[in-house]
Amino acid sequence: VPAAQNKPEDAAGLDPRAADGLWCLKLPFRIKEQKIVLDELSNLKKNRRVFIQQRNSNIFFLADRSQTLSSCKNDLDVLKKELQDV
């Protein structure tokens, strides 16, 4: 059986399921990780600074704590929906 070749759109991240056959096994880990992030952000004092790392870089940007918290909640909702769809 010939090995499956990755299409260019798979490498670009358009369909994570096609690029990684084990994506469904990683979902529970990613959900747990996201829950920890939410808990950490929720327990921060109001005056604490939050920094977001730029993707594929070592550059961090100052971010609003409440916006970051809501963004993480949305990410968790998306992950949970993906798990239910499996």
Topology as H/E string? Answer: HHHEEH
Low-confidence stretches: 1-14
First and last CA, distance = 26 Å
Computed CA radius of gyration, to the nearest angstrom: 16 Å
Question: Oligomeric status of the shown chains?
Answer: single chain
Largest sheet: 2 strands, antiparallel
E-strand count: 2
Strand order of the largest sheet: 1-2
Roughly what fraction of the amino acids lie in strands?
5-15%
Going by helix content, strand content and strand pairing, the class is mainly alpha
Shape: globular
Mean of all residue-level pLDDT scores: 80
Q: Fraction of residues in helices?
A: 55-70%
How many DSSP helices? Answer: 4
InterPro entries: ASNSD1-SEP (IPR054148)
